[in-house]
Request: fold
Amino acid sequence: MQKNIEKINTLLESFPYIREFIGKTVVIKYGGNAMIDENLKRSFAKDVAMLKLVGINPVVVHGGGPQIGKLLEQVGKKTEFVDGLRVTDSETMDIVEMVLVGKVNKEIVNNIHIAGGNSVGISGKDGGLIVADKKYHGKNNEKIDIGQVGAVKKVNPGIIRILERDRYIPVIAPIGAGEDGQTYNINADTAAGKIAEALGAEKLILLTDISGVMIEGKLASTMTTEEVAKNIESGEINGGMIPKVNCCVEAVASGVQKAHIIDGRLEHAVLLEIFTDSGIGTEIVL
Reply:
């Protein structure tokens, strides 16, 4: 009986959050170990299906770096990175698109269906969702050509709005097209942030393989954009965390209410963040 009472108390704790976020859009960047571990795959799919069931509108933007790397290795194609960016020639771009759109995207859609949700897989090329520009790498006016790597120029969210209206969960592969028709590989964090901005999302959630933003060895539960800037300048925030926090800062500065960097290695990480008093990870706000 006590266990049943605890379950009811847990449900009651989520009630005010359901009421607060009903009808709102939550953009989730899905990546890291949560996309590889079978238990975490099922956990994530259930979380997303649950959000839709209670009237919240989840939008999933996914990565797929390890899966891309595995297929490139199988076909004997060498992978080259420049400061974390995959150099993407035409042949690599074909493989990236095949893996992200044809394999990873459809697996996520299928997992959500198994969990009881209705979802539709698309890429940024569908409905002109993501218009991209060629992204160069370099500093101090240096322009290094890294191939078909793109920066988001514009997001046209009409196709997402149609899917939301018809009660589907959009699952988006971060592939965009230039105005000249060229296909571009886009960083999934960046794509998620820009989509969240275009939708005026209530939340942007980035799933990672760490607990959140660590400051002086401790997890920072909440940070303002000003605090983020100060900690980048001091070197406390460094390495691969910098583009993630910058993505969050840009999103909240452009109208997204809150951004979160959370540990996707935890089962039901998304529900823990949205529906519990304490939440998890790091929340970034204005």
